[in-house]
Amino acid sequence: MNGWMILIIVLALGMILGNILLVKYTANMKMPKPKHDNNKNWDDEEDD
Q: How far is CA 12 from CA 2, 23, 26, 36, in A?
């Protein structure tokens, strides 16, 4: 039973560490700018 508990803990820590590293890797990535404004019609409508 101890083997399963250790395996689950190692897998959980691996997932947490992997997500932290993924966030650090993508933190400085630049997002592409949209080629056209999708919200132009939204701004033209009046709110009631």
A: 15, 17, 21, 42
Domain assignments of the chain as residue spans, ordered by start = 1-28
- Supply angle C-alpha 15, 19, 24, rounded to 5: 150
pLDDT digits (tens, 9 = 90+) for 34-48: 777 666 666 555 655
pTM for this entry: 0.57
The Cα–Cα gap between 22 and 32 comes to 19
Q: Which residues of 10-27 are buried (b: 16+ CB within 10 A; e: fewer)?
A: eeeeeeeeeeeeeeeeee
